[in-house]
Q: What sequence folds into this?
């Protein structure tokens, strides 16, 4: 028995000796990748990484600064669609390139419309890819976004982009990390989506959500539709919705909690009925003077209910027109339907009847009587 235990320990030691070791000072950790479509199977690829160099002034004359300074370095060049940027740029790197700390992966809208099957398949198979990798579509050039030096923030652009998307996913934007995107991309009866980001002068902004049909970007969700999409997609709080109840008169609501439930009837018919019931608890953050009080809150609530119901039906109708299903309504119908006919679902999806009931409960008007 002792001999077996000894042999097992020796075997484990031999295995660990076979694993390659990485010393952080001897490698360059790629933190962001950008892909711009040039046409004819070619892309402009850009990779950024932190490059630590000696400052030449240890201690900075007692100012408490480190003896090394970090700066963002980037490599950019033309390659073919689907090639790993790390493999492409390794001959130009003075150290070994690694993607273990990659934060963001960006695609310009031209490449997204052309198709991302190669990029998604590659990242899905790469064991070094972190599951919390942030993917996004860029309106404009990913190279310009990743290499610009005029941002107001001093943090690396990769962290800036990831923080921006993650912060907004806690509010109006739906969760869309790599795990969620791959689940929707490879799953049945659902389609993937990604946030859309844009460089606006010296800062970045989210400007919508890109809905995909398989691997191709085919439809943009923007404006208040992003809030409506998220209220149907997942439970959330801290979202903000601006409701114009009359011309030039607005009420800004912050939801305390939002949740949706679904039911389906006649799932195998040519026109299945999908019923969504949304519950929203909200606070009034801002309102047109004199527009809301405890006395007329019920009236405003009814108007808001009907407005959100109409917006939800219109949004789903747009999905059906483009034959995209980022809400996963096909999977919802399947879960409610005995012996679901999945083969005919793509043809039946555009004819499904979507019904939505919204119940907004204003828990605080912000106005005392």
A:
């Amino acid at each position: 028995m002792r001999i077996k235990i000894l042999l097992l320990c020796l075997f484990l030691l031999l295995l660990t000796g076979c694993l390659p070791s990485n010393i952080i000072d001897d490698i360059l950790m790629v933190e962001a990748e950008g892909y711009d479509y040039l046409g004819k199977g070619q892309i402009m690829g850009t990779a950024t990484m932190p490059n630590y160099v000696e400052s030449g002034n240890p201690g900075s004359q007692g100012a408490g600064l480190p003896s090394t300074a970090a700066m963002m370095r980037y490599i950019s060049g033309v390659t073919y669609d689907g090639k790993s940027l790390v493999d492409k740029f390794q001959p130009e790197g003075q150290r070994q390139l690694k993607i273990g700390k990659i934060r963001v992966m960006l695609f310009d809208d031209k490449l997204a419309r052309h198709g991302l099957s190669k990029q998604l398949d590659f990242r899905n198979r790469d064991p070094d890819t972190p599951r919390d990798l942030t993917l996004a579509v860029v309106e404009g050039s990913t190279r310009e976004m990743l290499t610009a030096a005029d941002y107001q923030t001093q943090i690396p652009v990769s962290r800036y982009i990831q923080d921006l998307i993650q912060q907004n996913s806690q509010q109006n934007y739906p969760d869309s990390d790599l795990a969620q995107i791959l689940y929707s991309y490879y799953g049945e009866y659902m389609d993937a989506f990604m946030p859309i980001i844009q460089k606006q002068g010296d800062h970045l902004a989210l400007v919508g959500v890109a809905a995909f049909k398989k691997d191709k970007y085919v439809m943009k969700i923007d404006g208040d539709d992003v809030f409506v999409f998220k209220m149907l997609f997942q439970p959330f709080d801290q979202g903000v919705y601006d409701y114009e109840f009359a011309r030039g008169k607005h009420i800004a609501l912050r939801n305390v909690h939002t949740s949706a439930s679904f039911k389906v009837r006649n799932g195998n018919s040519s026109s299945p009925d999908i019923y969504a019931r949304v519950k929203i608890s909200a606070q009034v953050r801002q309102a047109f003077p004199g527009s809301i009080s405890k006395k007329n809150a019920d009236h405003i609530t009814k108007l808001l209910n009907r407005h959100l119901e109409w917006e939800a039906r219109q949004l789903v109708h747009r999905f059906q027109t483009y034959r995209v299903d980022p809400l996963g309504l096909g999977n919802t119908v399947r879960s409610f339907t005995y012996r679901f006919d999945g083969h005919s679902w793509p043809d039946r999806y555009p004819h499904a009847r979507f019904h939505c009931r919204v119940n907004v409960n204003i828990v605080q008007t912000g106005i005392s009587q």
The chain has eleven helices and 14 strands. Residues 16-26, 58-70, 90-94 have pLDDT under 50 and may be disordered. Residues 1-222 form one domain.
